[in-house]
Request: fold
Amino acid sequence: MSIKTQTRPAVDASVKRTTTALVVGVLAVVFDTTIMSVALHSLSKDLHVPVSTIQWVTTGYVLALAATVPLSAWVQRLIGGKRAWMFALTLFLLGSVLCSVSWNAESLIAFRVVQGVGGGLMLPLMQTIVMQAAGGKNLGRVAAAVGLPAMLGPILGPAVGGVILNWLDWRWIFWVNVPFCVVGLFLAWRMLPRDLRAASRPRLDVIGMVLLLPSLVALLLGLSNSAGGEGFGATDAWLPLAIGAVLLAAFVVYALRRGDRALVDIRLLRHRSVWSGSALLFLSGLAAYGIMLLLPLYLQQLRGFDVLAAGLFLVPQGLGTLASRSLAGRLTDRMGARWVAVIGFAIVGAATVPFAFSTATTNEWLLMAVLFVRGFGLGAIVMPLMVASFQGLASSDIPHSSIITRTAQQLGGSFGTAVLAVILQSGLTAHVAQGTSGVATAYDQAFWWSIGFTAVAVVLSLALPGRPAPAPSVTVTSAQVAVSVAKTDPNRPKVRPELDEVGDATR
Reply:
């Protein structure tokens, strides 16, 4: 019987071509983000503006990115995945070139918003196009390839940024994006499957857009402002958060009544895979990535590192993430997302404990080894959450799931950064009179909070879907579902026939 053969099929050549084209293009977005994380001080000095102003170079980009993500599904249905991807990448390329010729801080912030719009479309589009092409097969290995840019960014971004800022003009930060964009456009033109014209023109949910987009901008703005000295008590923090929460609640009520005609079909959250994956992606901002705020500050404030040294010190964490990429993908395909995520979060939490006990004289080689282990755990978190969020969904649901999970990840990262910044600031204020030992105590407290959030994530990971069903039965079922959806949904755009045959895709 065929059921005895449980070996996983090789990744299809067309999926590899699609993944390669998308990964090259998205590298521009990833490197731009990680390089900018070390450039704000230099930009403030060279453009002769305070840090509070130049911070909008990052804040404006993040707000534009978050506001654009929910539009990606509609844009894909309107012009097709290939055209949408090339349009978004071209927009990011244009924004990068304009940033490099900025004449003051205001123009730089405006052009960063252009970049953010392009990046906001690219990130969910990449997830959607790849997962639809994979058709539910070898999702762990496909997710490992898609996640490669996110892993290379922390390795190379800070180091490249340090080199540019030490020996070159800051404008070269944006010229780094150009080769990736140009090559990515060529590969997309040659390798991505062509778009077929939709049967009907999709209508934009204007009311949903008016409710959802400002709510995300307000929430991220409030979280960004809460990282200041007054924390969440500052008016420019709690007021945007309150407005954003009200608008988001209104969108939820509206979207539930509108169903699949809403800008984002939030009814997908009834699927265990979507709600558990989205919740963990949000929590990972607290448990895993919020600490990326602490580590550079810890190295510079407590140990006296400069920007370049701090960036190089963090390279082992990126190497650890890269090392676990393929293994995590294979294990996710073999045993499901649940236990891979549990183990990954447990490793991250355990590898954060040494930092909670560290002092200004703790051996640097020991901490670098711990960072490698921590990075290994981070790599084991990314893969299963990417896969689990799409498990059991029809192909037509993937764009909406991409938006939900990407938004959860964006909000979680911002929330994690804001919460840990408030905790650190409170600790520094309380122990300022103790000098260096007081600073160390403040960082210890912040690290322990991060460890506690990680422990919660370990428990929540048990809610993730288990091992997926055997491939033969999944293939038959998904084909039936895809054909049924294509025949019964008059608003569904016509996709490539080979994708309709594959049908049900999971992430």
